[in-house]
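During the no-cost extension, the postdoctoral fellow (Dr. R.K.) reprocessed legacy sequence entries with the updated structure-token encoder. One reprocessed record is reproduced below for audit purposes.
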Amino acid sequence: MQIVKIPKFVQSLFPSLVWKKENSEKEIYLTFDDSPTPEFTYWILNLLSSLNIKATFFCVGESAEKHPKIIDAILNNGNQIGNHTYSHKNGFLSSNKMYLQDIDRCKNILPNTNLFLPPFGKMYAWQIRNIKEKYKIIMWDVLSYDFTENISEKQLKKNILKNTESGSIIVFHDNKKSEKILQKNLEEILKTLLKRGFKFGTI
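Re-encoded structure tokens follow.
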């Protein structure tokens, strides 16, 4: 079962995590996980720039190390970056020590951010306790499922447009799994949100 909108009771279980940013301005927040990706990141940046939208890119340190010019392009366009571990580690499959070391290794590549979003959204409570000493842990309340194999264009649009509300943090992905469907549909989704009066902020 795909849970697009994270239930409030789940959010309440982990109050130290940032699930959304309540506001009265109809401001919402886009995140792109797994950056940077050669060519596709530039496509995303060009689209955002054409619509005057800013976003937060959660970057994998290993990729950022290989493509520093893409990181510069993200920042030079007025967007944010965040830590997404060095090697896209799953917290559920990692010891506490290894997970924290991987996050810190990414921090060495991306020193000017205190934002962290866990790959797969998976962390243990004791990992959260350690991570939040150094980072603001960002989650989301709307998941696009753009990475899902064979997701239909109709379902992708519905996932976002039906569930987004003021303060929502929306997760997209900057990777090969998501590239094809986002190149077809992301512009229409963003233009629809703009028409509905939403503003786009950074976290």
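The mean pLDDT is 96. The longest helix spans residues 176-195. The remaining legacy entries will be reprocessed before the final report is submitted.
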